Amino acid sequence: GAVELGPFRHFMQKEIFEQPQAITDTIPAVDAFSPALFGERGAAVLPGIQRILILACGTSYYAGLCAKYWLESIARIPTEVEVASEYRYRDSVPNPEALVITISQSGETADTLAALKHAQQLGHTHTLAVCNVASSAMVRLTEMAFLTHAGREIGVASTKAFTTQLTALFILAATLGKLHGQVDAATEAAYLKQLRHLPAALNSVLALEPQIISWSEEFSRKENALFLGRGLHYPIALEGALKLKEISYIHAEAYPAGELKHGPLALVTEAMPVVTVAPNDTLLEKLKSNMQEVRARGGQLYVFADADTHIESSDGIHVIRMPEHYGPLSPILHTVPLQLLAYHTACARGTDVDKPRNLAKSVTVE
Ligand code: G6P
Q1: Overall average pLDDT of the 274-282 stretch
Q2: What's the rounded Cα separation, in Å, for the pair 277 and 95?
Q3: Which residue has a Cα nearest atom 5 of ligand 1?
Q4: Contact yes or no for 110/54 (Cβ under 8 A)
Q5: 315 alpha carbon to ligand 1 midpoint, in Å?
Q6: Cβ atoms within 10 A of the Cβ of 235, count?
Q7: Ligand 1 pocket test: which of 11, 60, 130, 343 has the largest number of ligand atoms within 8 Å of its C-beta?
Q8: CB of 94 within 8 A of CB of 193?
Q9: Which residue, 60, 65, 88, 295, shows the most beta carbons closer than 10 Å to its own?
Q10: Which residues form the active site (predicted)?
Q11: Distance in Å, CA 121 to ligand 1 centroid
């Protein structure tokens, strides 16, 4: 049936605010990390998986990049991630034992489907779809599936589909970790508790909207922006930059913060806003020195810092403090303010937020 906008200005805003519910709907059956969550073949196949290859496009590809960090650190399984349109035409060296994971909101993206078929032709038999549409071609083609329950996503720029994909991929990493003896009972209990807390944590991040609106006015007058993150939050920086360029048409690029000195620092002037995802993890001290490099060149810093980081607002440094420190699920929470920043910047510029020029919701032709 028809989806109503309710109190929201655009579907994208509505969908950003639906994320606590979308994640609640995606995790109801998860009271333990069981291979059965991935379908009938899960219990037979997942314990034997020693390598993973992830294939996807667009925002779904960034979910895959984030998953690599989880799959390697939590499950200790070597993982490669590749853009589907590259993989399908590349002369790769296949390892048919590897589990191929395709990630797609629609399950109909032409390049991702073609990449999946290409992998199957190269001998891969173990395939898993992380997908939002149960009746899609992708779910029909794969051996296993985990369905995200984001509900229908209308805004062309993906929001709730992305955070439910991340949730699904975290559950996969924890499940493989448990099957491979890397996640003990205490860790499993802690992860489950953090997962169940996610919707409430997302609600407190959504409550930051007024602070983000206050940044968006200045942002809307920029023509370029840099996004920095490290580790697990580098893919989130990529996603933040993609959201901004898709809907506000501001040129945005994301870098792992350590790469700043190898090129993008040359672009930093007073005119360049630099958005930094700065959770309080082990790389924070290094990130702080990257931020000094930006300030020394007059760049304006916009920092999303965790509650327990000692980064204060000062001249040229604007800080929004996240409500908590979120542990391994932090990328999911840090995605939300970046979505809101892109959204309100686009609104301030008056673009067609739900239908940005030249883009389609589902790219079913090559
Ligand atoms: C299009 C959409 C993006 C999406 C990408 C992949 O480019 O505009 O939002 O991330 O396709 O779509 P999929 O349905 O495969 O996740």
Answers
A1: 82
A2: 35
A3: 58
A4: no
A5: 38
A6: 25
A7: 60
A8: no
A9: 60
A10: 361
A11: 24
Q: How many helices (H) and strands (E) does the chain have?
A: 13, 10
Residue 314 has pLDDT above 90, yes or no: no
What type of residue sits at position 249? Answer: Y
Question: Distance (Å, rounded) from C-alpha 86 to C-alpha 83?
Answer: 6
Any idea which residues carry the catalytic annotation? 361
Segment 243-264, tens digit of pLDDT: 999 999 999 999 998 898 899 9
Name the token pair of 103: 């990630």
pTM of the model: 0.96
Helix (H, G, I), strand (E, B) or coil at 75: coil
Which structure tokens are listed for 242? 């993609």
Which residue matches tokens 């720029």? 157
Nearest ligand 1 atom to the CA of 165 is: 16
Residue with tokens 């496009």: 57
Residues 240, 254: Cα–Cα separation, whole Å: 8
339 lines ligand 1 (CB under 6 A): no
How far is it, in rounded angstroms, from Cα 203 to Cα 322? 11
C-beta separation of 337 from 330 below 8 A = no
Atom of ligand 1 at shortest distance to CA of 359?
Answer: 8
Report the pLDDT averaged over residues 215-228.
95
Going by alpha carbons, the residue nearest to atom 2 of ligand 1 is: 361
Q: What contacts 24+ positions apart, CB below 8 Å, involve 35-41? A: 35/175, 35/179, 37/146, 37/171, 37/175, 38/128, 38/144, 38/145, 38/146, 38/172, 38/175, 39/143, 39/144, 39/145, 39/146, 41/143, 41/144
Scan for tokens 């993989």, then name that residue.
87
Nearest Cα to Cα of residue 214 among 305, 315, 341: 341
Task: Determine the Cα–Cα distance for residues 105 and 132; give it in Å rounded to an integer.
Answer: 5
User: Quick count: other Cβ atoms within 10 Å of Cβ 267?
Assistant: 15
d(CA 229, CA 279): 9
